[in-house]
Design a protein that fits this description.
The chain is built from 16 helices and six strands. By secondary structure, it is α+β, with helices and mostly antiparallel strands.
C-alpha cells in the first residue's frame, strides 16, 4: 500500500447549485459521524469499488461542500484538467478528506486522504482503491504522513499538525489573489474557468453540484485551522523542559510588557527590559544561537545589522519584481492553452515601497537597541524569515515573536515544527497560542483594558501585572536546574 504525505486543510464553499439527483450504485451512508464515515469508506465490501461510487453515495452535506485546488503540490497532486477537491462538513468541522481528479499520471490518483479532528487532535488516514476493486486502508497517522505532519517526522505530544501557509491560498480557485501589481488576478480567473470546466466533464465528479463562486469562507476556515494548531502548540509548549521558568515571561511578552511602540504611554519602565526578567546566571547559561543565520550573527559582530537587513529588503524587492515578470509569462501561457507549473508566487508586499519597509526597519532597530545581543538576533532573524515567506514584517508582533522564540530556542529547543507552513515563519502560531494558556485567561482583561483606554487606573493595573510576572520569572530563573539522571539502557546479550 502506498502511504501518503498528507497536506490537508478544511476549506469549504457553498456551490452555485445542489446535487443533480446522484446515482448511487453502491451502499449509501447518511451517517455524518466522521468515524462511521471512515469505516464505511474502508470496509464497505465490494459495493463501492470506485471513488466515484463513494462520492455518489456519501452524505449530501459532504457532497455539497468542497474546495478546489488547481495546482496542488501535496502528495495527492493535481493540475488544471485534473483538480483536487477537498471536502468538509460546513456545520461540523471534524472531518476533511480530499479526492483528486483521477489522472493516472499523478500520484495518489486513486486514494482518499482523510483527516479527522478528535477533540482538536488530528488523526490521519489514507484509503487506496486498487484496480481489482479492493480497498487498502492505512493505520492511523502512518509514518510517511508524519514526515510533513509530524514534528521532524515524529508524532509528538501535540499530535499531527495541519500543514498550510497563510492566506491567501494561491493554488486554490479563489477570487483574484493579491494586488494587481503582482500580476495574479488574470491567472486566477483563467485557472478558475479551466478547472471548473474540468470538474463538470469528469465522470468521477458526476454526482457533485456544479462549482460556482465561493462565499467568503477562507478566513473562517483559516481561523479554524489555527485554532486546532494553537491547542497542539500549547501541548508542545507545556511538554518542553523547564517550561515553568519561562511561562510567566511569554505571557508578559504577549500582554505587551516588554514590547510596546509608545513606551512613554507606560510611564513606568521597570519591567520593559529582558535582563530585568531573568537572572544573570540564566542569561549566561541560555545563549544558544544554532538556529540563527550565520551571516546575521557576523553582521551583528561588525555592527552592520541595519546595512545587512536593508540589503535584504532591496533583494526582496528585486526578487519580487523578477517573480512578477515570470508570473506574467506563465499567465500568458495559461491563456494560450498551456498548463504551467506554479511553484512560487510574486511576493505580496512588493506592492509596498522600499522606503516604507526601511522606515519600519529603522523604527524596529531603535525599539530593540537596548535588548541583550542574543535577544536582538532572534528579532532580526524574524525579519529575515518574514521576507522568506513573502512579506517584510517589522511591526510589534515581530518583536514579540522574536522574544518568544528566544525564550525557547536560546535553551536549545527547536520549535520549527510548531508552525503550520512548510517553510516555518514562526509568526502564525506562537502569540495566539499563548492566549490559550490556562493562566493567561485571567490576565487578558488587564492587558486589553490598558491597550484600549490607558487611563491611570488601567495603567496601574497593567504595570502591577507586568511587575508580578517579572518577579515570578526572575525568581524561577534564579533556581539552578538539577539534571535528572537518565536510566541506563539494558544491553541484550
Amino acid at each position: 500500500m502506498k502511504l501518503i504525505l498528507l497536506i490537508l486543510i478544511i476549506l469549504v464553499y457553498t456551490p452555485a447549485s445542489f446535487p443533480r439527483n446522484p446515482d448511487c450504485d453502491g451502499t449509501p451512508i447518511a451517517n455524518e459521524d466522521p468515524f462511521a464515515f471512515l469505516q464505511w469508506v474502508k470496509h464497505n465490501g465490494n459495493l463501492n469499488k470506485k471513488i466515484s461510487d463513494v462520492i455518489c453515495c456519501m452524505p449530501v452535506k459532504f457532497r455539497s461542500s468542497y474546495k478546489v485546488s488547481h495546482s496542488s503540490v501535496s502528495a495527492q497532486a493535481a493540475h488544471y484538467k485534473s483538480p483536487r477537491l477537498i471536502f468538509g462538513n460546513l456545520e461540523n468541522d471534524n472531518i476533511t478528506f480530499s479526492i483528486s481528479g483521477g489522472d493516472p499520471t499523478l500520484p495518489q490518483s486513486n486514494s482518499i486522504e482523510i483527516i479527522i479532528d478528535r477533540n482538536d487532535e488530528l488523526e490521519l488516514y489514507d484509503v487506496e482503491f486498487g484496480e481489482d476493486g479492493k480497498k487498502h486502508g492505512s493505520k492511523k497517522n502512518p509514518e510517511l504522513c508524519m514526515s510533513c505532519h509530524g514534528n521532524f517526522g515524529e508524532l509528538t505530544a501535540g499530535g499531527p499538525r495541519v500543514v498550510f501557509s497563510k492566506l491567501p491560498w494561491q493554488r486554490m480557485t479563489t477570487q483574484a489573489v493579491g494586488s494587481e501589481c503582482t500580476n495574479q488576478g488574470n491567472f486566477q480567473r483563467e485557472a478558475r474557468r479551466i478547472t471548473y470546466e474540468a470538474i463538470e466533464k469528469n465522470p468521477r465528479f458526476r454526482c457533485l453540484p456544479s462549482p460556482g463562486p465561493e462565499n467568503d469562507t477562507d478566513i473562517f476556515y483559516d481561523e479554524y485551522l489555527e485554532r486546532i494548531n494553537f491547542k497542539r502548540v500549547i501541548v508542545e509548549m507545556n511538554a518542553t523542559p523547564d517550561f515553568r521558568q519561562i511561562r510567566n515571561f511569554i505571557m508578559g511578552v504577549k500582554g505587551g510588557c516588554l514590547a510596546y511602540y509608545d513606551i512613554k504611554k507606560l510611564k513606568l519602565k521597570n519591567f520593559t527590559k529582558v535582563e530585568q526578567w531573568f537572572s544573570d546566571r540564566y542569561l549566561n547559561e541560555n545563549d544558544n544561537l544554532v538556529l540563527i543565520k550565520r551571516d546575521l550573527i557576523n553582521a551583528e559582530q561588525e555592527n552592520k545589522v541595519e546595512d545587512f537587513l536593508s540589503t535584504k529588503i532591496d533583494e526582496f524587492h528585486q526578487q519580487g519584481q523578477r517573480e512578477a515578470q515570470e508570473f506574467q509569462q506563465k499567465t500568458q501561457a495559461l491563456l494560450a492553452g498551456e498548463f504551467p507549473t506554479i511553484t512560487t508566487y510574486p511576493k505580496l508586499s512588493t506592492c509596498e515601497s522600499i522606503e516604507g519597509h526601511k522606515r519600519g526597519l529603522k523604527k524596529l532597530l531603535g525599539l530593540v537597541s537596548s535588548y541583550p545581543k542574543n535577544v536582538r538576533l532572534y528579532i532580526y532573524d524574524m525579519v529575515i524569515r518574514s521576507m522568506e515567506n513573502g512579506r517584510v514584517e517589522t511591526g510589534i508582533d515581530i518583536i514579540k515573536n522574536g522574544l518568544v522564540r528566544w525564550a525557547f530556542e536560546s535553551r536549545g529547543l527547536n520549535i520549527v515544527g510548531w508552525d503550520m507552513s512548510l517553510i516555518p515563519n514562526y509568526s502564525r502560531n506562537l502569540l495566539p497560542a499563548i492566549d490559550r494558556l490556562e493562566d493567561y485567561l485571567d490576565l487578558r482583561s488587564v492587558f486589553a483594558n490598558f491597550e484600549r483606554t490607558s487611563n491611570d487606573e488601567d495603567r496601574v493595573a497593567f504595570a502591577q501585572q507586568c511587575s508580578d510576572l517579572m518577579l515570578k520569572t526572575r525568581n524561577l530563573s534564579s533556581v539552578k536546574k538539577t539534571k535528572k539522571k537518565m536510566p541506563k539502557k539494558k544491553v541484550k546479550k
